[in-house]
Amino acid sequence: MEGGKLIIFSAPSGSGKTTIVHHLLEQPELNLAFSISATSRPRRGKEKHGVNYYFMSISEFKKHIKNGDFLEWEEVYRDNFYGTLMSEVERLWKAGKNVIFDIDVAGGLRIKKKYPEQTLAVFVKPPSIDELKIRLKKRSTESDEKINMRIAKASVELATAPQFDKVIKNYDLEKALKEAHQLVAEFVGADNNAEEQEPAS
C-alpha cells in the first residue's frame, strides 16, 4: 500500500473526536477523506450503511478477518467488532486524498505501527472521566450498563495517550479545533492560512 497521508484521531467515547474530525473534513485545503469503518454492531438512529459505517453480520466480519482484508480490527465489546478495510484506504488514496480516521485507540496505534512515516496519530483527551460520563448520558443512545462499560474502558484508554504523536486536550472546543487544524495542516503540507491559527500548546 502506498499513497497519501493517514491522520488518526483516537479517544475514549464522548471526548469530542468525531466533532473535530467532521470540522477538519470541511477544510478543503487539507484534502481529507473519511475512512469509513466496518462494524458488526447494529445501526443506531439514522445511521446509513456506507456513510457512517459498513454494517456487517458477525459471520461476515469474521470472514473478512480470515481473508486478511483488514488493516486493523478489534472486538471492542463482546461480538461488537470494528475494523478498517484495506480496500477502503486504497479507494481513498486512489482518489488522491489524505485519509482521516475516527477510530478506537487500539486500532489507531496498530495503523501507526504499520505506517509510522505516513501516519499522524492524535489522541483527544476529555476534561475528566466525570465530564465524559455526562456527555455519554446526554447522547441518550445507550443504557447505563453500556455507559459504565465505556467509562471503564476510557480509564484504560487514557493511559495510552503518551503512545500517540500528539495529544489535544478538548477542554475548550474552539481551541481544540484550531489546534487540530494546525497539526493536520502542517503534517499534510497544506497552506495553513485559516484565520490566525493559534500555536499548538
Describe this structure in words.
The protein has helices at residues 17-25, 58-66, 86-94, 105-114, 129-139, 144-158, 173-188, and strands at 6-10, 32-34, 38-39, 54-55, 70-77, 80-85, 98-102, 119-125, 166-169. With 201 residues, the chain is an alpha/beta fold. The strands form 2 sheets. A 5-stranded parallel beta sheet has the order 2-7-1-8-9, sandwiched between helices. A 4-stranded mixed beta sheet has the order 4-3-6-5, sandwiched between helices. The longest helix has 16 residues, at 173-188.
Task: List descriptors.
201 residues, Rossmann fold, five-stranded parallel β-sheet, four-stranded mixed β-sheet, 9 strands, 21% strand
Mean pLDDT: 89
CATH-assigned fold name: Rossmann fold
Order of helices and strands: EHEEEHEEHEHEHHEH
How many β-strands, per DSSP?
9
Q: Report the CATH C-level class.
A: Alpha Beta
